[in-house]
Design a protein that fits this description.
single chain, 4 helices
Amino acid sequence: MNMRHLIVSRTTAVWLLLVAATLLSWKVGHEAGGQDPRGVGAMIIIVAFIKVHFVILDFMEIRHAPRWMRRVGCAWIVLMAATLVALLVTAPPPP
């Protein structure tokens, strides 16, 4: 395996996407200031579950697993993200 292959591989691209998503979450969280923390929190949770999606598919190698396994994994991600966002958004506003 040569260096060029490492640089242009899907794994490297996904890793860079994960780093960018982490930086985005950090920036959104730190610049929230006077915004509603529930909306900011919901956005951070959504970005986190997008990252989970890529980790499960690419680093746990579910991308090449049987279709039913990919669907179960994706359904779990959507269900957990939707549940957490719904709980967060319906919570009473902070004092």
